C-alpha cells in the first residue's frame, strides 16, 4: 500500500469517553476500615438508583445526593462505598421507588451531561448495584451470599467463598480503508437510520486482537488487519467494558451482513460522517450516528476529524 492509504491510520479518540471520567478516590483500603465505614458514613452522601438504573439529576445536570445520616447512624446493610472526594464519602443505595414519574434519568440519557465526578459516581453505582442484584447466590454451592467489604464483594454463607464484581470485556472497532471511508453497520433493533461501528464480546481463551478480527469477519464478512488500540469505557448495561480499536479493511471486498444480527452495512465517506456529526441527530443520507455518551461516538469523531 502507498503512504496515502494510511491517511487515517493515526487517528485517536477525539476526547475521553464520557463514562470513563471519574475523580473520586476508590482505593481498596477504604473498604476495610475497622469500624465498617461508620466514620466515613457519618459525613457521607448517598446516590439513590432505582431498579432501571435511573437516578435524580437536577436542573444543573448534577446528581441529587442525600445525607447518609438520613438512612441511619451506620452504613446501611446494602450500601456500597463508591469512593471519597475532598473528604466526603459517596455511597450508593438501591431505591425501591420507581422514578419514572419524577423525571429520574439514566446514564444513556444524562451521562454526557454530568461532570467528571458525577459521571464516575453514577457509572460505578449502576454497575455495582446491578452486579449485586444478580449475585445473590454462590456459583459453587448455591447458598445465599451477603455483601462485604463496603459492597465490593459478596461472601457465601455456605462455603465462605468470596466473589468480586464481574466485568465482561467487549471489543468495539472502527474499521476504515486507510483513506476516506469508514465501515458502519446497523442492528435491526436500533432506531431508524442508526449506524455505528462493529462490536462483540471477547470469548474465553481469545485475545482482544483476535476478537476484533473474528467479530468483523462474522458480522460483515471482511478481513480486518492492522488492529490498533484506542481506549476504553465502562458500559454498565449490565456489566461490560468496551475496549476500543481501529482496524483496516479492503473496501472492494464484498460485505456480507450476519443474518439476524446485522441489518445493513456500508462504507461511508468522511464528508457524510462529518455532516451527520453536525446535524444534531438528524439523518444525513440515511445516516444517524450513535449518541455522544458512547465510546463509538468518540471513535467516529476522532476518525472524522483526523487531519494527519
TrEMBL record:
Entry's Gene Ontology cellular component terms: cytosol
Keywords of the record: Hydrolase, Magnesium, Metal-binding, NAD
Domain called Nudix hydrolase: residue spans: 165-291
GO terms of biological process kind: NAD+ catabolic process; NADP+ catabolic process
Entries under CDD domains matching the protein: NUDIX_NADH_pyrophosphatase_Nudt13 (cd03429)
Molecular function per GO: metal ion binding; NADH pyrophosphatase activity
EC number, UniProt record: 3.6.1.22
Record-linked Pfam families: NUDIX (PF00293), NUDIX-like (PF09296), Zn_ribbon_NUD (PF09297)
Cofactor entry: Zn(2+); Mg(2+)
Signal peptide residue numbers: none
Catalytic activity: a 5'-end NAD(+)-phospho-ribonucleoside in mRNA + H2O = a 5'-end phospho-adenosine-phospho-ribonucleoside in mRNA + beta-nicotinamide D-ribonucleotide + 2 H(+)
Family stated for the protein in its record: Belongs to the Nudix hydrolase family. NudC subfamily.
Alphabetized PANTHER family for the sequence: NAD-CAPPED RNA HYDROLASE NUDT12, NUDIX HYDROLASE, NUDC SUBFAMILY
Protein name: NAD(+) diphosphatase
Amino acid at each position: 500500500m502507498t503512504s496515502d492509504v494510511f491517511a487515517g491510520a493515526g487517528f485517536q479518540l477525539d476526547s475521553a469517553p464520557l463514562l470513563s471520567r471519574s475523580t473520586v478516590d476508590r482505593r481498596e483500603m477504604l473498604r476495610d476500615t475497622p469500624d465498617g465505614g461508620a466514620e466515613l458514613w457519618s459525613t457521607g452522601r448517598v446516590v439513590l438508583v432505582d431498579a432501571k438504573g435511573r437516578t435524580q439529576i437536577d436542573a444543573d445536570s448534577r446528581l441529587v445526593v442525600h445525607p447518609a445520616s438520613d438512612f441511619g447512624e451506620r452504613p446501611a446493610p446494602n450500601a456500597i462505598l463508591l469512593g471519597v472526594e475532598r473528604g466526603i464519602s459517596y455511597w450508593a443505595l438501591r431505591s425501591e421507588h420507581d422514578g419514572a414519574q419524577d423525571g429520574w434519568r439514566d446514564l444513556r440519557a444524562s451521562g454526557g451531561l454530568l461532570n467528571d465526578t458525577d459521571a464516575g459516581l453514577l457509572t460505578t453505582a449502576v454497575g455495582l448495584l446491578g452486579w449485586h442484584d444478580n449475585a445473590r447466590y454462590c456459583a459453587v454451592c448455591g447458598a445465599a451470599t451477603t455483601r462485604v467489604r463496603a459492597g465490593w464483594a459478596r461472601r457465601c454463607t455456605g462455603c465462605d467463598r468470596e466473589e468480586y464484581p464481574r466485568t465482561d470485556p467487549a471489543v468495539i472497532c472502527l474499521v476504515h480503508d486507510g483513506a476516506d471511508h469508514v465501515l458502519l453497520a446497523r442492528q435491526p433493533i436500533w432506531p431508524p437510520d442508526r449506524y455505528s461501528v462493529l462490536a462483540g464480546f471477547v470469548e474465553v481463551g481469545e485475545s482482544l486482537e483476535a476478537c476484533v478480527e473474528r467479530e468483523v469477519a462474522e458480522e460483515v464478512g471482511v478481513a480486518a488487519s492492522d488492529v490498533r488500540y484506542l481506549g476504553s469505557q465502562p458500559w454498565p448495561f449490565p456489566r461490560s467494558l468496551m475496549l476500543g480499536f481501529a482496524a483496516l479493511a479492503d473496501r472492494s471486498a464484498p460485505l456480507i451482513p450476519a443474518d439476524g444480527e446485522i441489518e445493513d452495512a456500508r462504507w461511508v465517506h468522511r464528508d457524510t460522517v462529518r455532516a451527520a456529526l453536525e446535524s444534531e441527530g438528524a439523518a444525513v443520507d440515511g445516516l444517524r450516528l450513535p449518541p455522544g455518551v458512547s465510546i463509538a461516538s468518540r471513535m467516529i469523531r476522532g476518525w472524522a476529524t483526523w487531519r494527519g
